[in-house]
C-alpha cells in the first residue's frame, strides 16, 4: 500500500455527537442557573443557540481536519500529513515501529471505527515517536496492525514459545476491585456530586437539612457509621463497575512475530501490542488491599512503554489485572517463557535488622506530623483539637509501626537464572524480575544515616519500565558483592578485594 489515504469521513459525525453531549452536560447547569434569575424561555433562548453554534463549529473544524489529513504506508516508512494553518509532514521508519495500539470509544464502535496509534517505543518529546490516525475503519486498523507488526519467520523456530491464548478474564476477579483506595475515594466523590447537582437546582440546603433530620435520632457513632457504610457501598459498586468497564472481554495472546497483545474494554475497547524483544522482565504488584485477599497484577517491564496522552493511567503496561496470586505467577511465567516465574521460584535474601529500625523511625516521624499540627492548632485555635491530637496519636502510632514492620518484611533480593529479583513496599508491594542482560548500570547511594548503620541503596539502571529499580537498605558489603555477581564488570573495577590487600 503506497497510495495516500484519508481518514474515515464519519469522524465528522462522531465529533458532532461528542460536541452535542458536551453541550448538554454544560448547558443543563448553565440553563438552570440562567433560568433561576429570569425565566425558562429566556434561558432556552440563550443556551440553545450557543450549544448549536458550538456543535456546528466542532463539526466544521473536524471536516477541515479530515480534508487536510492523509497517510500512507510504503515499503520503508509510514507517513502522515496533517495541519490546517501549519502543515506537518511526519514519517516513521517501519523498522523502528514497535507498537500499533487500537482504541475505540462507544460512539466509534457504533460506527465501526477505531483510533490507531503507531509508536516506535522511543520516549521522544511532543509525540515525535508516534503517529495517530483518528479514526479509521476497524478492518483498516487490523490490517495496519498486522502489516506493521508482522515479523514472523517462515516456519516455527526451535525453542520459541508457542503462540496462542495466555489468559482470559474470569468474572470472579471483580471481587478484587473494591480492595483498593479507589473505593473510599469514589464514595466521597459521590457525596460531593450529589451536593453539586443539588446546588444547580437550588436544593443543596434542603438536601443537607433532610440528611440531618434522618440522622438526628441516631447516636453520633451510629450516624457516622451509616454515612461511612453508604459511602463504602457506593464505592464498592463504583470500583467494581470501573473494573468491568476496563477489563471486560480481557484477553492476553502471544501472536506470530513475537508480539504480546492485550485486548479489553466494555464501553471503550483497547488493543495494546508489545513486541517481546522489548520485554526486559515483569513486575508482580500486590497493593495492600489485594495482598490481604491473595490477589496480584502483572505489569510489563519493557522499553518504550510511555503513557499515552489520552490515557494517563498506568494500565497501558498491565498484562494481567488483579487476579489470584497463583494466576499472576502463571501468567508471569508464560510471558517470560519460563517454566516457573522468577518472582515465585527465587528465595529472596533478607535485609539487615538496621533496615527495620530505619523504617520504624521514618514511619513514626510521618505519623507525628499531623499530630503536631493538631497540637499547635489546639493551643492557638480550639482546645477540642488537643483531644483530636492525642486520639490521632493513639491511632496512627501503631498503624505506622505495623506498616514499617511490614515494609521491612517485604524487603528482599536474589538471583535466579538470567533474572535479578527485587521486592519492596508495604502499601504497594512490588516484586520485579529484571533480565540481568537488560541492566546497563548500577548506582549505589548511601546517606549519612545509612553509612552509620552499614547500609546502602543499590539501583539497577535499565532502558525499560521505570528506568531504574532499587534494592533498599541492603548491607553495604553484601550489596556491592551482589551487584558484581548479578552483572559482572560494572562495579568490579571499583571494588577493593580482600585477596588483593
From TrEMBL:
Q: What is the top-level taxon of the source organism?
A: Bacteria
Question: Domain YdbS-like PH, which positions?
Answer: 66-146, 408-484
- Record InterPro entries: UCP026631, YdbS-like_PH
Q: Which Pfam families match?
A: bPH_2
Q: What is the protein name given in its UniProt record?
A: YdbS-like PH domain-containing protein
UniProt source species:
Prauserella muralis
